[in-house]
Amino acid sequence: MTDKDIQKQISRRRYLETIGVTGAGAALAGCTSGSGTPTTEGTGTDGGMSGGDTPSSGGTFVVGSSSKASTLDLHKATRRPEQTILSAIHEPMFRMNPDLDPEAHLAADWSSNEDATEYVFTLEEGITFHNGDELTAEEVVWSWERFVENSPQSYLLAPADSFEATGDYEVTVSFSDPYPLLPRYLTNPLTGFVSRSAVEESENYGQNIAVGTGPYQWESWERGTAVTVSRYEDYNWAPEFVSNQGPGYPEEFRFEHHPEATTLLNELTDGGVHGSSYITLTDTGEVENSDGASLVRKEYTRPGYLAINTQKAPTDNVNVRRAINHAVNKQPVIEAALGGEGYPIWSIVPPIAVNGLSEERAKELGEQYNQSRARELLEQEGWTNSSQGETRTKDGEELTLTFYAFTIPRYAQMGEVIAPMLGEVGINAELEVLEAGTLYNNLESGNHHITTMAYGGNWAVNAIEPILLGENTATEGGTNYSLWENDEFDELLNQAKTSPDEEARQEAITQAQELIIEEAPVTPICAFNKIYGYKNEVAGMDAWTEHPWWPDQEWMNRLELGL
């Protein structure tokens, strides 16, 4: 959808007729680094993708995860384990179709005025929550207001001046400034809808119940073990580009917690797990060489990086941050921590993301691996040592950094490989591998100097806003773990989101990325391959992976996959 298209009134059917989407979706795009469409590859153990049969109805589909959810309140969740489960329970107003355009889903019609300051959404009638409540305009307004009040990603809708029910099934959203990216933002699953009555009747919503409009409904939560959702039999409103409009094929999805990588691998290849996107990247060969399971992979836009605390000495000094960037040799990290399942990046936005800097430009500006330069920068700031590899000191204080990593193996392994690299230039990085609750509590308290992190997006603006916008700092409940606050960056990001002129938006997002490289609040390391391992008996894989950004469309496999 172009910017001009956003200003037109569009119905679901007319939109589909316009772009020509039928059946299970459009064909996959090839590798076009300039277009922003990533390469898509999927192979089974025999070199051809398996799982193409239509699933049968019934059974329990077991999804394996190495990390457990902490809340199932849609508007308070931030992490992938929660979103994996919530993708079955909740739905947003828009979905990303196979042409990578936002397509109205729960809205039958929508329009915007010429300068994109007012949007009107006409809801599909007859859509119900799992408790029988109907999705009305009042429910939408209440949910969006609750999202803005509670979600760490509230910035997506926070610029709105008002959400108003202008009819039983009509919602009007008004902005003071142009907001042309709203339809794109409304594909974010966390902007979806929860039942108002369920929240008001529950003393602990998100812990003992979650009620949405998705194809599966809350069944049970066995703490530390599994979350089970059951098929919502009334569901029949999936987008037309999905081969199954609903309900889902399995009677249940069971999301099991297997914290040990070896256990999860064994459960997938020889045990009870049917599918998982949490298989350690270094174990991909084990899946591909097994008799009972296969793997699909995709070079993707999700970056792995170091978030550097810009508010805590000594990493509040830009040259110390640049030295950290120069000290990290990316390729050994990819090989040792990811088993080669990734590619190096020099900007926090990978070049295959829409509006990402080209690899050439990012490398030209970026802090490439150069131990000598790292040492020079540290010396320049007064951090000295008497022999190579010795921890540097300044005014009697050692250059010791608190280094956190998540227990998910790929992030822990990244930390284990990077810490000694920093030691080689005289930085003593004291690595602590922490479970989720402890990690995020420490990050929100600003106790860290550096931490391994991954938080990406398919568009440059979406990739950097959550992790670097000043108002999204972790100490204020957001996901900016660098605690970076830069007025120039924030203004460039604002222009990239609100300018009515598309070229002006592109120029602003380019300048924003260049400023990130200059100020070094993060150390870009690599973008991961996205993988999904599945038992050979799983059907429907072809339908799901036809979507060019299938790894981020987990909601689709709740409808497409089965046994």
Characterization of this structure:
The structure is a single chain. The protein has 563 residues and is α+β, with helices and mostly antiparallel strands. It has 19 helices and 21 strands. The strands form five sheets. Strands 2, 13, 14, 15, 18, 19, 20 and 21 form an eight-stranded mixed beta sheet that branches. A five-stranded antiparallel beta sheet has the order 1-6-7-9-8. A four-stranded mixed beta sheet has the order 3-12-11-10. Strand 4 (94-96) and strand 5 (102-104) form a beta hairpin. The radius of gyration is 23 Å and the shape is globular. Residues 27-65 are annotated as: Disordered. Residues 30-43, 52-65 have a biased composition (Low complexity). This is ABC transporter substrate-binding protein.
Radius of gyration: 23 Å
- Shape by Cα distribution: globular
Low-confidence stretches: 1-50
- Number of separate strands: 21
Strand content: 15-25%
Distance between the termini: 35 Å
How many H/I helices?
A: 19
In this structure, how is the largest beta sheet organized? 8 strands, mixed
Helix content: 25-40%
Structural class: alpha+beta
Global mean pLDDT:
89
Biased composition (Low complexity): 30-43, 52-65
InterPro entries: Peptide/Ni-bd, SBP_5, SBP_5_dom, TAT_signal
Domain Solute-binding protein family: 102-460
Protein name: ABC transporter substrate-binding protein
